[in-house]
Amino acid sequence: MPSSLGLPRSLSLQETFSFRSKKQKKTSNNKSFGLPTIQLDRFLTNEGHQLVTSYFKLSQIQNHIQKGTLHKITEKDVDELLKSYGGLSTPVYETLSYQELNLSHNECKLLAKLLKANHVTNIRKLKLSKNHLSGSSIKVIFEALQKNSTVKVLDLSFNNLADNEAKWLGKLLKKNNTIKEIYLTHNRIKSDGARYLSKALIMNESVERLSLESNLLNEEGGKYISNMLEENDTIKHIHLGSNNLSLEGVKAIAKSLESNRSLVSLSLDINNISEEGAKSLALSLEVNQSLTHLYMPRNNIGDQGLKYICESLPKNSVLTYLDIEFNNIGRNYNVEGMKSLGELLESNNKVPRAINLTYNPIGDEGCEQLFKGFHKNTTLESLILSNCSIGLDGIKAIAESLKLNIGLQNLSLNKNSNMGADGHLMLADALEKNTSLKGVQLDYNFADWESIGNSIQKSLTRNHFLQKEKYKTAANILKASRILLNPTLQQQLPTCMSCSTSPLISPFISPLISPLISPMISPITSPISTPKRLSIQPPEKKSFSKLPFELQENILAYLDTNHVLSKNQILEIISFSLKKSTLNSTMVEFLSKTLSAYYPLTPDVRLWPTESTDSEFFSSERF
């Protein structure tokens, strides 16, 4: 056998394994099981040995990078690994999650080297929370990111970033136009840091999501942020909770909303807003037509603050979710806030679609005011009334309105222990008549909870399937209307019940339309007046589109075999099908227009949180 590099090879690897396996069978009394350990070095050339060794070493380096154990590798190791990729992009580092690792300065330098080689490493998400980063350690990462064009998500939450670090981040944002999301929650950034960041974000055109929750911005910082929002047109979500912005800071931010056209979500948790701050926000909501989610828990806005907001919402058409948890609404038996909110909902205003009133002492009287005209509302989808001191009288008001309400999808009544067993029974009875509610959160804290829980669940399940059937029926009527009411297709109806139907008519329509149109079609023959030899010509076929509209409507209505749609809804669907402008409409647009609203077919209605990364970042969680 020919030698390689002067070393003879007695057996191939395959032959060696086969030979050893046979040998092991002969010595079956051995304690080892499976294939024995083989020293491959004996059967490899020098060149092969080097390749295998190099492969294992590079794999180990790569694993250390993915796990974040950078202290176990050197700069030379990283260079060798990057060189081995041959300049080809690889997705192995798409997300680097280095959380709670207490990265040293040397480790940050290694990370910076990876970030600079972005054409190879292809890092998209960089999570560095809880690493106590500050000073030169974070500076070297910011400098590397200036040359990076792949990182889109940068999480620096729970570190030691202060104004200096914010200044370096500002320099990065002036040069980098790739990063879309920045999380700076729980750091030590003050008003000067807010000024550096704001100046940079006025120039930046990529950042869409910014979280500055739990820093030290204060009133001045709030004003700098407001200046930025007046000019920036790319940021869609901003979290400013727990920054002690106070009244003046919130007023400045509210003023900026009047000119801002990009912001979708604004979080102002725990900022001492008070009712005056709520008034400023209310005035801005009358003008702003882009903000869909407003979070303002724990701000002591009280009943008057809620009243200001309710008075402004008839002029707003976009606000989807309003979070006013823990705001002393209903304190000292005050019902003015609930009365205003009840009147807003009774007027069937399109906004908001979800409201969170958790931990407000609304009580029975407030609940009665809220639900006084609620049965008329068809737009509110979700209402959270957890821990609101609601008793039996309040539950009675809720139950009575639910018997007639057709819009509410989700209702939370957790931690209202005063409702008792009778309150739960009232809800169960109401849900037997309600056809829209599909999610209810309750505390079953009494002996008969199982039977009542089963009754409520049965009603919710029925409503879920009913909604599904409504959507399916609406879609079928739309398809039939598109075909039959389009004169260019020239569909022809059968001349009598025994005649074959036109191939253009949908098979699920033909058995329904024949009995409806037969009275309109003259008989084929008359046994008294027709001579024997006279050839009878069949009557002229009638185009469906030329039939009286009332008859067309009745024919199409027969597709609703289980009568799940109202007559007005069917008319809306037919009207929708006749308009050329609706041809490219989505399912959501179609159902929203014809059935008043579109509710996703999911077990729970989730209109929150707006932030797509709330499940990943604890600091942004709402509930």
From TrEMBL:
State the source organism's domain of life: Eukaryota
> What SMART domains does this protein's entry cite?
LRR_RI (SM00368)
SUPFAM superfamilies per the record?
RNI-like
Q: Name the Gene3D superfamilies for this protein.
A: Ribonuclease Inhibitor
Which Pfam families does the annotation name?
LRR_6 (PF13516)
Question: What name does the UniProt record give this protein?
Answer: 14356_t:CDS:1
Origin species: Funneliformis geosporum
